[in-house]
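Weekly modeling sync, notes
Attendees: S.R. (lead), two postdocs, one rotation student

Agenda item 3: backlog of single-chain predictions. S.R. asked that every request posted to the team notebook include the full sequence so nobody has to chase files. The rotation student volunteered to paste the first one in as an example of the format we agreed on. Action items at the bottom.

Example entry:
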Amino acid sequence: MPLDVLVVGGGSIGERHLRCFQGIGCTVALCETNAARRQELAERYKVERTFDSVESAARETWYGVVIATPANLHADHAAALAGSTEALLIEKPLCTLPEDIERLRSISQGKMVQVAYVLRHHPATQHVRQLLEENVIGTLRQVTVTAGQNFASLRPAYRDTYYKFHESGGGAVQDAATHLFDMVQYLAGPLNWIFCDYAHQEVADVEVEDTVHLIGRAAGERVLVSIALNQFMAPNETHLQLNGSRGSLAIRFHEHRAGMFMHGDSDWTWTEPLAAERDDLFREQAQSFLSAAIGQQPPVCSLDDGIRTLKVNLAALRSGQRRTVEAI
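Predicted structure, as returned to the notebook:
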């Protein structure tokens, strides 16, 4: 029996969701207000049902709804569509305004909500999380992340998207760094406080930050955290390392592999690549969403998880503006 999934938003991330839900056998419809973009995607992916507004899409019933519009619209679109589905997959960041948190909680009563922090679905993440749960490296003491990419070449349309304004979820804090904030909390535990410095340095034709440095403490302040990211360097790389009392674990997301280096070892031991391409993660996310929708498993990233990372985003923006330490 076909599973009808509605993707709301035809930008680059909406297109990826459309492609990846189709890739696991779903019948996908598209809601996109831009007529030219709607037609382009419908022809490219042979989408039979399209809608020019959330109001018209809400008249149908959906197995699941993917909200992939700018973050400032997420709460409005969730409200419009909650009555037509029992399951919502909401892109990150969850929203941009603190007042939308309780609104989303209210809208989501009785629904299964998953937040699309896709790095949680990487097999290397799951591998490392399992080793942490088994206490392989002893007591976790420190997490460091360094990451970056040449944003202008990877996302050349950024000047005309949500990215240009904080209000719509733009800037490096809410766009790329939020994945890292979530990843640290998923592996190490909730962040307790943070200090964040950010700046616009290189990415042309925008004023939002493209460089983020964050330090903090997690897991009851037992774990020291350091995150550094920019969106202009030549390589597209993300290195995450977790240092414990007996050894270290690492993920090289750009190589799709995980590593271990125990006290007494002479070098890292790395897995083979655990994924082939980024779409693998989105297909895994799509499958987990469908499974969670029927109660086979809990959502990999729950609404509460998404809210916790949203609070880190907002604290990071405040910290960068005020030069203050912010409690989460």
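Discussion: group reviewed the output briefly. The CA atoms of residues 15 and 41 lie 7 Å apart.
Action items: rotation student to repeat for the remaining queue; S.R. to check formatting next week.
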